[in-house]
Design a protein that fits this description.
By secondary structure, the chain is an alpha+beta fold. It is 14% helix and 20% strand. The protein is built from 5 helices and 7 strands, in the order H-E-H-H-E-E-E-E-E-H-E-H. The protein has helices spanning 30-33, 57-62, 67-74, 153-156, 187-193, and strands at residues 42-47, 85-91, 99-110, 121-125, 136-139, 150-152, 164-168. Strands 1, 2, 3, 4, 5, 6 and 7 form a 7-stranded mixed β-sheet that branches.
């Protein structure tokens, strides 16, 4: 497949919109920023939790093993239907229920024959928007319901969710710790990284 990259230059400060620190910034619509080659064949998934009582999507996204996170997107219970593409997001609960962080653009291929209790789709990561994986956080106008976590791209923008680009997050929010030297941290940011890093800043394995 031809390179579908948008050619945008990544910036860490130019796309913040209506954040809590900058209420006067201009709105950037989700579909204006995240274009796709086939809008009518693309779905957007807002992952929240791995089943009833399961792990939070954001925690699975941060884990060393990506398989549990990928399972949230490729399980046969996902009604991807005729979709050929998928934009995947995880709820970014440090901000609140309306915020989601981007984790990739995928080509969707149904697995045939279907096996009960296993993955129903194969996902192939595509280069388009790859520079925004994890830094990009979007905000929904209202929290997504658990029964409405999978939406068609072409109708999402004009729905009651009406997503907008919120910000490109710095590394500290994403579990990547730069070390203790010359670092200024807020208390909630230190809570985010302290359980998973040692004194050298290396990530400890989770039990």
């Amino acid at each position: 497949m031809a390179n579908e990259a948008t050619g945008r230059t990544r910036s860490t400060g130019s796309v913040r919109t209506r954040s809590r620190r900058n209420e006067g910034a201009a709105l950037i619509r989700f579909t204006d920023f995240m274009t796709v080659p086939e809008p009518g064949l693309t779905k957007v998934k807002f992952n929240i939790q791995a089943g009833v009582g399961g792990a939070e999507a954001w925690d699975l996204l941060l884990a060393d093993n990506p398989e549990d996170w990928l399972d949230m997107n490729r399980h046969q219970n996902n009604n991807l239907g005729r979709a050929q593409y998928l934009l995947s997001f995880a709820q970014y609960y440090p901000y609140g229920p309306q915020y989601f962080i981007f984790d990739g653009f995928f080509r969707v291929t149904p697995i045939v024959p279907e096996l009960i209790g296993s993955a129903g789709y194969a996902l192939t990561s595509l280069p388009q928007h790859s520079e925004y994986i994890k830094p990009l956080i979007i905000k929904l106008k209202k929290p997504v319901g658990r029964d409405l976590y999978l939406r068609w791209y072409e109708t999402l923008q004009d729905s009651k969710l009406n997503p907008e680009v919120h910000e490109l997050a710095p590394d500290i929010k994403l579990g990547r710790f730069p070390g203790y030297q010359n670092v200024m941290l807020k208390h909630h940011e230190l809570q985010r990284i302290s359980p998973t890093t040692d004194r050298t800043g290396r990530t400890r394995s989770r039990t």
